[in-house]
Amino acid sequence: MVDVQSRKDNRKIQINKVGVKGLHYPIVVLDKQNKFQHTIADISLFADLAHNLKGTHMSRFIQIFNRYSADFSMENFLEMLKKIKNTLHAQNSFGEVSFPYFIEKEAPVSKEKSKMNYVCEYIGEVREEKTLFYIGIQVPVTTVCPCSKDISARGAHNQRGIVRVKLCLDKFFWIEDIISLIEKSASSELFTLLKREDEKYITERAFDNPRFVEDLVRDVTQRIEKMGQFPWFSVEAENFESIHNHSAYAYVERGNKNYELAE
Amino acid sequence: MVDVQSRKDNRKIQINKVGVKGLHYPIVVLDKQNKFQHTIADISLFADLAHNLKGTHMSRFIQIFNRYSADFSMENFLEMLKKIKNTLHAQNSFGEVSFPYFIEKEAPVSKEKSKMNYVCEYIGEVREEKTLFYIGIQVPVTTVCPCSKDISARGAHNQRGIVRVKLCLDKFFWIEDIISLIEKSASSELFTLLKREDEKYITERAFDNPRFVEDLVRDVTQRIEKMGQFPWFSVEAENFESIHNHSAYAYVERGNKNYELAE
Amino acid sequence: MVDVQSRKDNRKIQINKVGVKGLHYPIVVLDKQNKFQHTIADISLFADLAHNLKGTHMSRFIQIFNRYSADFSMENFLEMLKKIKNTLHAQNSFGEVSFPYFIEKEAPVSKEKSKMNYVCEYIGEVREEKTLFYIGIQVPVTTVCPCSKDISARGAHNQRGIVRVKLCLDKFFWIEDIISLIEKSASSELFTLLKREDEKYITERAFDNPRFVEDLVRDVTQRIEKMGQFPWFSVEAENFESIHNHSAYAYVERGNKNYELAE
Amino acid sequence: MVDVQSRKDNRKIQINKVGVKGLHYPIVVLDKQNKFQHTIADISLFADLAHNLKGTHMSRFIQIFNRYSADFSMENFLEMLKKIKNTLHAQNSFGEVSFPYFIEKEAPVSKEKSKMNYVCEYIGEVREEKTLFYIGIQVPVTTVCPCSKDISARGAHNQRGIVRVKLCLDKFFWIEDIISLIEKSASSELFTLLKREDEKYITERAFDNPRFVEDLVRDVTQRIEKMGQFPWFSVEAENFESIHNHSAYAYVERGNKNYELAE
């Protein structure tokens, strides 16, 4: 059977990234509390393609991914990207894998347990000369508006917001620790299950800790800088404003984005 | 050229609805303030298909719709459905058309003007024996939680929510009047542009008018019933809870859903 | 602490449905091949609310759901709805739970294995007088256009489509059997991993089996009717047309929608 | 009334971007055929914030935008960003505005007219030292798989795909010309309204012009390079594969991304 993809191409155009996108697949990831966790990922996998080749072999991305899916630690993710690069005779390979990650939390007063959903992301590039690895984490929070509180005779508008961080990895860390750091920076963290005594606690805690999106990205930035272990990172906060039909948004980035991960 | 669609089918299965879905197209609708408004609709158009015909003629839906798109009043929408029914020799035709609708509003204190976005929907069925017509309207609002306010020493959690009504039409009405009715039922209405004096006003107004989703659907229900002109309607309220990562939701329906629109 | 929700309400408006919506949570479901499967659900749970009560107790929905989430069979889903109805002193309870469900499939020629993603849904109502239970299943497929094939000198446009069925349950069945029935009705089924010999097989199989959306809903309808075990069902097919930027769509429903599930 | 935003901040963290996101608003843009076109935009507007200020003044973004919305040419978009920068005493301002743009097209044989939907985007940065301006354009197309065609005895799988280009602007161009260039590079362009004679024409044209995503990005790249007027650009193609439930994807970028727009 002819191999159309391996035919010669004369357009002299090297392709930066080619591969598969929007694949949904079950994976197993590490979990600080329970050792491992079953989840479902949205996966994109790419490699570059030399200017003289007509096409890449898309099925090989899936074959290789499939082998790693049952043990998808950060380490194995990078190993998979190396395998893709070598198998496809590419110079660079790229992967973006996002998945919901659940953590069991205790309500602050009633101590009732329930699971909260955080979206995580691995973003990796294995290049000839270096390896880059970013971890994305999304944490929903509550924010009380400091301006609304100060100018109003009573009450203060508040809303659900989301904080997204992207961390350039140097050495291993637990996602749980970053989530906790972000939740401490908000007016309050969120819970799936709250009884009345918890609702009182959270309402008052949030009212006592008003935060603009500006405050939120600054507090998270300070805390991540203090950890001193990420060569580069970004922090964004988006508030689904309760008094508007659009969002308030803030973004900070710090460090050297092209930090090379040590082998 | 052969007409494959007009071939005979022997499976003896009449098809309830067949046609086009997810068409995006510019339309012009009526506007209480400005006579007409340009907007962009998401359109689905269907007819039934007799058991003995292999396929419908999809291009005819588009041709007919195209002719009506520049003057898409409620009246013309129904006329278009009749035209579809007749042209396709069908017994019934169906249409669902949703579109953003903008209204210029004044901020409550500063009187600054800006436009707010409300999603509207026409849902029509022209059947052999009767015509049904529903109007859907979505209104984003603020809700302050009555429980949180009462049990907490200070503050109260609040959030953006959305109220969706669906109204079975008997005679013409202005969408603007229903939007206003819904906004009066919430803790506060939303605005695109607010200065500080407006923010103070809204924060205090909302705090003074706490509303569960249950209160919201009840208040809107009462006000719609008072209008006495809709043979059937439904009201749903969804709060994007600021203390949870999920929604609180309530739904009420009243009346006779199969009310036949007079010609 | 005051119980605001239990206060009296004087508006005399009974609420049809009130509860939680858009909750994301890990669940475990039955699996024909592997006994059980971990997946992640999008959950809505409601009950009605008597006219004289101000609010429902949202946290109880979560508490009850949480207890059932680790063994979320069809049977336990209904048991959970009964528990919700009783705990909340409601007359009716409602649940909608959708989740991706993965099945390992073999490519038709190479026999390479990979997992395919199907979205499933449980929709249940436990009312005073009866219990209704619907299962929704979504199956992505390929469709080759019979008209395009017949009128063209070569080729035929084809595209990805999706078939959605909703089945009113009388007795237990395996989701896998319905998926297989739908895949046989399309021009071809889809796979996550295909080698070249499989691609040739599927291209030719699909070209030999052209199907309009009308054909697809009729074939699936015939096959489901032949099973003779669903009191009511609906079948819809949507083609993401490769020659248009909108969809072709067809819908059939059959039977008695209000069939009462035996205890 | 206190101005909370103008208070001093001691965290010494300058914020890269802060402002409003996800605003929906009607705008009027230039149109090659009809002089201007009404459409609805999704808008994000940001500026940086000095380390010593607590917050930005979000309402000013809306006020300034509102003034420009009725004449939203590329030129006025940049002028608006300059106005934002100056009004907010910022060093940099940023804007991302995306909107559907409709072009009336004639079917290839029947010459029937209908409108096609293309999503466009303005992305601008006005910095102290330079101005950057990118235009994004998304064009849905058909692609026939060259491998499937060559290895199969009959037929070839094909599907809807989307090509997205991002062009760094040096001098004015018509969006229509880029759309046309992209549509020529695909197996076939799409239409909203096609009669049978058109369907035959397109099926055969597409079958005679098979294109991988790799071919598509290379052909578009060649054609854009030939225009010789964009200092930097990227091209991506995504196929919603008809034989898989995921996409095939390719990406190319060329030139100097930091090209400064002349005043």
- Secondary structure: helix percent of chain A: 25-40%
CATH class of the domain at 130-256 in chain A: Alpha Beta
| Percent strand of chain A | 35-45%
How does CATH name the architecture of the domain at 130-256 in chain A?
Answer: Roll
The average pLDDT of chain A is: 96
Shape of chain A from CA axes? elongated
Largest interface, with Cβ-Cβ < 8 Å?
Answer: A-D, 48 and 48 residues
Kindly state the number of beta strands of chain A. Answer: 9
How many helices of chain A? The count is: 6
Radius of gyration of chain A: 22 Å
Uncertain runs of chain A are none
| Sequence of secondary-structure elements of chain A | EEHHEEEHEHEHHEE
- Class by helix and strand content of chain A? alpha+beta
How far do the termini of chain A sit from each other? Answer: 40 Å
CATH structural fold name of the domain at 130-256 in chain A: Urate Oxidase
Oligomer: homotetramer
Most strands sheet of chain A: 9 strands, antiparallel
CATH superfamily of the domain at 130-256 in chain A: Urate Oxidase
What can you see in these coordinates?
The structure is a homotetramer of 263-residue chains. By secondary structure, chain A is α+β, with helices and mostly antiparallel strands. Chain A has a domain at 130-256: Urate Oxidase (Roll). Chain A is 27% helix and 40% strand. Chain A contains six helices and nine strands, in the order E-E-H-H-E-E-E-H-E-H-E-H-H-E-E. Chain A has helices at residues 58-68, 74-87, 146-151, 175-185, 196-208, 213-227; strands spanning 15-31, 35-49, 93-106, 113-126, 131-144, 158-168, 188-189, 232-239, 247-255. In chain A, strands 1, 2, 3, 4, 5, 6, 7, 8 and 9 form a nine-stranded antiparallel beta sheet that branches. In chain A, helix 1 runs antiparallel to helix 2 (74-87) and helix 4 (175-185) packs across helix 6. Chains in contact: A-B, A-C, A-D, B-C, B-D, C-D. At the A-D interface, strand 1, strand 2, helix 3, helix 6 and strand 9 of A face strand 1, strand 2, helix 3, helix 6 and strand 9 of D. Strand 9 (247-255) of chain A pairs antiparallel with strand 1 of chain D.
